[in-house]
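Researcher: Re-running this chain for the archive, since the previous output was lost when a drive failed. Same request as before.
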Amino acid sequence: MKKLLLLPLLLMTCFCFAQNPQAIIGKPYRIGNLEIAQYDFAKSMYIDQAEKACRGLGAGWRLPTKSELNILYWNKSKIKIGGYSFNFYWGDNEDKDYPVMRQNFSNGEQEVVYEDDRMRVRAVRTIR
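Model: Regenerated structure tokens:
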């Protein structure tokens, strides 16, 4: 019985990570040397899942840094990179004491958080 209960969880996890990268990346939008995926991942994720999902897109895709996440927030109304939910998004704080942070896309507040929550994910990459 336990194995049967585990099957739906496994299928959901595979769906999150096996999505077609192009379906997430879409037509990326550029701001300076930052390229932003057109779409969020379909499901909210824990931080380790979010990092793995971004890396799974290949070619340097990753979670945005704290300052990049703020750029996404201030440009969220641009049609080309719209589609943000009014939820929290994961970001990389770049501070080894507190490596995980989030930004609220309804009011712009950023805060350091623990890794035991699920949040939305938008991938970015640096273009040289």
